[in-house]
Amino acid sequence: MKASVVGFPRIGRLRELKFACEKYFRSELPAAQLDQTARELRLAHWTMQRDAGIDMIPSNDFSFYDTTLDTAVLFGLVPQRYRVLGLSALDTYFAMARGYQGEAGDVHALPMKKWFNTSYHYNVPEIDDAAEIALVGTKPIDEYLEAKAAGIETKPAILGPFTLLNLANYTGSRQLADVVEPLASAYADLITRLSDAGAGWIQLDEPWLVRDLDKRDIALFRRLYAPILDARGNSRVLLQTYFGDIRDCYRDVCALAFDGIGLDFIEGVQTAELVANYGFPQDKVMFAGLVNGKNIWRNHYAHTIGTIAALRGGTRAPIVLSTSCSLLHVPYTLEHETQLNDSYRCHFAFAEEKLAELAELAELAELLDRDDPSSTPAAKANAALMGARPDSVDEAVRARVVAVPAGAQTRLPARPVREVIQKKELGLPLFPTTTIGSFPQTQEIRSMRARRRHGEISQQRYEEFLRDQIAEVVRRQDEVGLDVLVHGEFERNDMVEYFGERLDGFVFTRFAWVQSYGTRCVKPPIIWGDVSRPKPMTVSWSSYAQSLTDKPMKGMLTGPVTILNWSFPREDIPVRDTTRQIALAIRDEVLDLEAAGIRVIQVDEAALREKLPLRRSDWQREYLDWAIPAFNLVHSGCRPETQIHTHMCYSEFADIIPAIDAMDADVISFEASRSELEILDSLAHNRFETEVGPGVYDIHSPRIPSEREIGEALARMLDKVAPDKLWVNPDCGLKTRSNAEVWPSLRNMVAAALKLRAQR
Ligand code: GLN
Ligand code: ZN
């Protein structure tokens, strides 16, 4: 059996591409050298896959920033404002990716959005009137030939037209329907060129197919692909889907003239059933995505071989073993994780280890005709591994989860009653002012943290330093006149890592970077076992900060859904169970904060929206039904006097407003400054009950907002929000900003609130 990889990470084992690009951005590296680094990385990645025994190796999965952006540029989707800069092709590309400020002009980047249900961000393509839709680039052909010159046959992988058109923004006079013909013919030109270059297989990625589709979507898909399939010549075209099953178009897709179809058996809960019910055409190759491209656990060989055996019982089509999606979403290699004990390490497979698994599984599957593969040493070793994960079960945690009574997640009394009690207890003015939690992480703070990590300063010295920082930020917030203060989060590098490091059940890596966007990478912690809190995590910082002021000091925690969504979850128990364990741990912290005299507690759910299932029909049952109760469990034990806040870094929750209200927080802050406040209409329309702090200014920009513009934003908000429900705050934490920007901005914000109060 052959083995195929959908896509391979490109940032480099030691993030070589990140560092080279960043040097190029700072004009410290010439374009030719950046290109050289890129070539070296591509060659290294192809060679590695070939040496591991992968038969179908992707090319064109490389990108300097983002492959969606690459595809847009390849087909001429370059908006006018970038064209007029008159930069080189590479710099125009980077201007679209990151914005440009210099002699040639001043333009924002294309917006970024989360790539389907992952934490990776893509640049949203834009089709304006300047778009000349045609094949204007050669990247996939160049990279195919580059590999070929190195003696490696690859399958060029390109984002397909159906997904591209559905992801794009239309800002000119043309809408989606107007660009179908030119785009399909541009893709057909590309296919012809690749075919002429000798490509055996060409992979077109269409993750949009796993979403809810109707007849019109399917008709559009057919129209796009007719000319493409006609253009293939001697090449074979693989339709690659991932991030779910294609239940709405499975039969349509099987009826089209593709040479291969890539199906996701990991996230595609109905994939196996679809194949069993409707069969799979014999004249096509099935690329069976059975090795998880999104998580870091070793593959369960017996399950995988079992699935392959079942598939072979149902179809005579040739099967190629594949990753379920690109390996972009997992780190490179375990090789550098030398601090991880072997009894842990052997349970993980990052991208490189997954290559070995694919090759090994393909060999085992080969045996299916003759032998029982389960008796081979490889299968036996894997079976032994699956049974044995040290320290992953904590009976006490499990017993506690089970013992939570059914009603325990309902906070009493009801929110309107609490609202009255809290207004009296906290004595806050109308339009109370606050911030989202973090204050600038200065160079000094980062360097002290690094010195502590390297053992250059003692824990005591480090904590003294942090206390000084807290005292200073409390003093300045008092001076500016904010109403609800924060301690500044100086002790945290990251809002998930900080808690993960203090909770039992997590494992940390040192170099396991995953690209988040462009040159930015994250290092998600791994949830290894049952999660619990051995001791308080934030109480000493919050109570120290509270001791410095009479104003309420807001305790600051990360919520269970966000901790889960920004970690690698377990596969041996459902994520809903893990989330409940985390919820109980955070609940303990909430109650300890309350007992220590903290009267306002914010539980951030910055990533709650992110893992909302791709199909609307799955939202409630597959996600909200457990995610929202997990949040409720965190604060349901609080006294009515304690005010619970939550925060979300986005405002695209118009579709799930009832669920957000059901979180039953007392106050929610969210991003609003860039979204034209549309969300407020939806809140009013849905009779949203929670008090709201729509961000009054954008912290993602270095600009200092004037008192007047904040006043105007508040006035617009008051058209939609009752005065006794409106909070005044920036739209996110301030940690990425400088003090020089933060304090004048907050001063203006407080002044705007005071003025508004005076008018009442
Ligand atoms: N409390 C966090 C902060 O202010 C929230 C960060 C976030 O929403 N991403 O930094
Ligand atoms: Zn935020």
From TrEMBL:
Active-site annotation: H700
InterPro entries: Cbl-indep_Met_Synth_N, Cobalamin-indep_Met_synthase, Met_Synth_C/arc, UROD/MetE-like_sf
Cofactors required: Zn(2+)
Assigned EC number: 2.1.1.14
Known catalytic reactions: 5-methyltetrahydropteroyltri-L-glutamate + L-homocysteine = tetrahydropteroyltri-L-glutamate + L-methionine
Positions bound to Zn(2+) 1: H647, C649, E671, C732
Known pathway: Amino-acid biosynthesis; L-methionine biosynthesis via de novo pathway; L-methionine from L-homocysteine (MetE route): step 1/1
Binding site for L-methionine: I436, G437, S438, E489, D604
Pfam families membership: Meth_synt_1 (PF08267), Meth_synt_2 (PF01717)
Cofactor comment text: Binds 1 zinc ion per subunit. Binds 2 Zn(2+) ions per subunit.
Positions contributing to L-homocysteine binding: I436, G437, S438, E489, D604
Binding site for Zn(2+): H647, C649, E671, C732
One annotated GO biological process: methylation
Domain Cobalamin-independent methionine synthase MetE N-terminal: 3-312
Keywords: Amino-acid biosynthesis, Metal-binding, Methionine biosynthesis, Methyltransferase, Repeat, Transferase, Zinc
Protein name: 5-methyltetrahydropteroyltriglutamate--homocysteine methyltransferase
Organism from which the protein derives: Collinsella aerofaciens
